[in-house]
Amino acid sequence: MAPADPDLPLRQAAVETARRLARDYDDLVPLERLREGFWFDGERISFGSFQRGIHRARIQRGPAALTLVTSFKDPYADTFDQVGALFTYAYRAGPIDQPDNRALRAAYELQTPLVYFRGLAPSQYLVVAPMFVTRDDPAARTVMLEPGLPIQDMQPGGLVSAPDVRAYATTEARVRLHQQRFKLEVMRAYRHRCAICALRERTLVQAAHIVPDIEPEGIAAVVNGLALCAIHHLAFDRNVLGIDPDGVVHIARRLLDETDGPMLRTGLQGFHGAPIALPRRPEDRPDRARLEARFERFERAVA
Which residues pair with 132 in a beta bridge? Predict the structure, then answer.
């Protein structure tokens, strides 16, 4: 069994705050909020500088790192193995026994939870917590990271959840990573505007899948995405709004024949027959085959 970590209560507070922020910000936490840190025993504690990837808080009594950061530009070549569903994290450049690397390796020796921040865009981070260092490879100067479970694995004794449960947690983290990248790529391609109505209020514009992500063709790639405001995204998902392979909007006949307030008239009926706005780069534009398959479903639903 790994030795006891004297900083476990501090880690529990860090993980709890990090997970709450992930929920509050829909999995993509802004750097300005992370820089506020978290509270522990009446003191504000830093999550780190976000310029150095391995952070050990000033008040810690134990030797292990508290947080790890992979920046948007990935300076230390941290990777995610999409086949094996494993996160790897590189040692800091320089001597293997420098303080940051000792703190990273101590997290492995103690089997103690950390918070992992992975930059997906400038000043925006995906949070995975708790994260554990489950393998140390000094020859390759890397460690392996695995997500744990907040309830089971935040108690004394380290990582105790079963391998199959950890594998599920890792797969879940992989899905979150892919979906957030998809969201960022779609928003960039459409310049953060709804492809139908051009709304650019970022809190109301979402990345929509053309083919649902639960299906084999529903890849988390910009060619399978559209930027849609909340009302048009919901209408698209509910098959009362369709987009044909030429990028033309269609509204279900029953809504076209209905008389209601201004939202129906200007928000839906008014866009019937209008083309969607396309990304500037051809390689970012919606895949025609996926649009066709999705439009066929719309036609069946409204027939």
Answer: 146
Question: What domains can be seen in the chain, in order of their start residue?
Answer: 8-183 (2.30.280), 191-302 (no CATH)
pLDDT (tens, 9 = 90+) of the chain, 303 residues, equals: 567 899 999 999 999 999 999 999 988 999 999 999 999 999 999 999 887 799 999 999 999 999 999 987 754 444 544 444 468 899 999 999 999 999 999 999 999 999 999 998 889 999 999 999 999 999 999 999 998 877 666 666 667 677 777 777 777 777 788 888 899 999 999 999 999 999 999 889 999 999 998 888 888 899 999 999 999 999 999 999 999 999 999 999 999 988 888 889 999 999 999 999 999 999 999 999 999 999 999 999 998
* Tokens, residue 102: 């000792």
Q: Which residues of 32-55 are buried (b: 16+ CB within 10 A; e: fewer)?
A: eebeebbebeeeebbbbebeebbb
Q: What is the pTM of this model?
A: 0.76
